[in-house]
């Protein structure tokens, strides 16, 4: 698999869906924006622990996505920083092809070390087990 994020691209951020956050994400971002974790949760999050996510905005999934890009790029949530190394994308070629339709970084750049990609996917799956429970 090849992947290289393209400068200025926010296509992954523009897709339908939710941005889920870990406890570590919440603490890091709250500190970055200068508010308490409780205030951060009140202002920006919904859902119930342990599966908290950003409230949907009118036309975007993240309150920190601006026209010029991500305003918290250097400390973005695990879900964002791990893209496209999500379990479902590593497991299915059809998911990778679908992602490549909107993501200009797919199939670009150097080959990705598959063990590093799997380690990142495992981290995502451990962080959000509810999203990856086996369907019965």
Describe the structure in your own words.
The protein is of the alpha+beta class. The protein has one domain (about 1-130). Helices cover about 35% and strands about 15% of the residues. It has six helices and seven strands; from the N terminus they run ββααββββαααβα. The longest helix has 14 residues, at about 115-125. The two termini are about 30 Å apart.
List the helices and strands and how they pair.
Layout lengths: L1 E2 L16 E2 L1 H11 L3 H8 E4 L2 E4 L10 E2 L2 E2 L7 H4 L5 H5 L1 H8 L5 E6 L2 H14 L9
Antiparallel strand pairs: 1-7, 2-4, 3-4, 5-6
Helix pairs in contact: 1-2
Number of helices: 6
Which regions are unreliable across 5 or more consecutive residues at pLDDT < 50?
none
Number of domains: 1
Q: Provide mean pLDDT, rounded.
A: 93
Strand order across the biggest sheet? 2-4-3
Instruction: Tell me the distance between the termini.
Output: 30 Å
Number of strands: 7
Radius of gyration based on Cα positions? 15 Å
Fraction of residues in β-strands: 15-25%
**SSE order, as H and E?**
EEHHEEEEHHHEH
Shape annotation: globular
The structural class is alpha+beta
Task: Give the tags.
alpha+beta
Summarize the structure in short.
With 136 residues, the protein is α+β, with helices and mostly antiparallel strands. Helix content is 37%, strand content 16%.
């Amino acid at each position: 698999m090849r992947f290289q994020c393209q400068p200025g691209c926010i296509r992954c951020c523009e897709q339908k869906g939710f941005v889920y956050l870990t406890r570590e994400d919440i603490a890091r971002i709250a500190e970055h924006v200068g508010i308490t974790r409780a205030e951060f949760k009140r202002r920006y999050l919904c859902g119930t622990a342990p599966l908290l996510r950003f409230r949907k905005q009118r036309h975007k999934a993240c309150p920190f996505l601006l026209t010029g890009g991500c305003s918290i790029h250097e400390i973005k949530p695990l879900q964002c920083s791990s893209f496209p190394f999500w379990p479902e994308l590593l497991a299915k070629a059809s998911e990778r092809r679908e992602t490549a339709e909107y993501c200009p970084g797919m199939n670009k750049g150097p080959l990705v070390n598959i063990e590093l990609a799997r380690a990142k996917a495992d981290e995502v799956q451990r962080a959000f087990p509810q999203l990856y429970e086996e369907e019965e």
